[in-house]
Design brief:
The protein contains ten helices and 13 strands. It is of the alpha/beta class. The protein has a single domain, classed as Spore Coat Polysaccharide Biosynthesis Protein SpsA, Chain A.
Length: 284
């Protein structure tokens, strides 16, 4: 059984650093920061130690946003802006040579079942004893926003795939040539969910990529592509949906998804019906 006792959130990107500080009303009807929602997702997966990669100087704001969940948090400042892969590599000492859960700070997920999305992923990674990335079937029109994987379905499984290659924000042409997965709807691809369980092999791949880059940026997808050729690496189609908070209306969509899965669902639906009726009747 794989041991997964630590988690890493990356939130240092220029367009990303303020997103986890935004507030929403969660499924319990409680107003929380996006960071606190992520931390609760991690804790629900049975993980208590979390590091957050941030820009230097953001420690106080993130501590306040975490609230009561700030206890036990470790902050890892990214002084050099060398990309997503470099940000994650800063957690090598924190992860102590063990597998770990990784989430991105500008995505929230809403599960379609009792088990949260992180719990679904961690359970599969523990049972399969390998790296596993959460994925979601995604239309080709939004490929420019995500990393994507190509591979084949694991025999006997409905939602598990053996990853054969990874491409960062591929064009539709590249996706059609390299990332078609048998069984998916036409023009749909398995794109990252913003959540992974990663092995120490990822840190090794990142180090090699960073050394070759000689000071320039490195993305995580290239390291994961390397990993797919070195060790067993799977993708799990999560029973849930991701919400990218960094795109227009992303925060709104995430809030709506949380509300429709939460304790205030009936009230929210009633308010929506009233609003639509008012607009349909020409009421300002």
């Amino acid at each position: 059984m794989m041991h997964i006792e630590r988690a890493v959130i990356t939130a240092a990107g220029p367009g990303q650093r303020g997103i986890p500080l935004q507030t929403l009303v969660d499924r319990d009807g409680v107003t929380r920061s996006a960071l606190a929602v992520l931390l609760r997702e991690i804790q629900d997966a049975g993980i208590r130690k979390t590091a957050v990669v941030i820009r230097p100087g953001d420690e106080e704001a993130y501590t306040e946003a975490a609230g009561v969940l700030a206890e036990g948090l470790t902050f890892l400042p990214q002084v050099e802006a060398r990309g997503y892969g470099h940000a994650l590599s800063l957690a090598k000492t924190f992860t102590q040579g063990e597998s770990f859960l990784h989430l991105v700070g500008d995505h929230l997920c809403v599960s379609d079942e009792a088990a949260g999305c992180a719990r679904q992923l961690v359970d599969v990674a523990r049972s399969e004893a390998c790296a596993v990335s959460a994925v979601q079937a995604t239309r080709e029109t939004t490929l420019s926003l995500y990393g994507a994987v190509g591979g084949l379905k694991v025999p006997g499984s409905e939602r598990l795939y053996r990853v054969e290659c990874v491409r960062e924000k591929p064009t539709p042409t590249v996706a059609e040539r390299e990332l078609v997965v048998p069984g998916l709807r036409a023009a749909h691809y398995l794109c990252f969910f913003g959540m992974h369980v990663l092995t120490p092999g990822v840190m090794e791949a990142l180090e090699a990529r960073l050394a070759a880059a000689e000071g320039s940026g490195v993305n995580l997808s290239s390291a994961l592509d390397d990993l797919s050729r070195r060790e067993k690496y799977l993708a799990l189609e999560i029973k849930g949906h991701r919400h990218n908070l960094g795109v227009p209306y992303g925060l709104f969509h995430a809030q709506l998804a949380l509300a429709l899965r939460g304790v205030d669902r009936d009230q929210v639906l009633a308010d929506m019906v009233t609003l639509l009726a008012q607009r349909g009747g020409g009421v300002a």
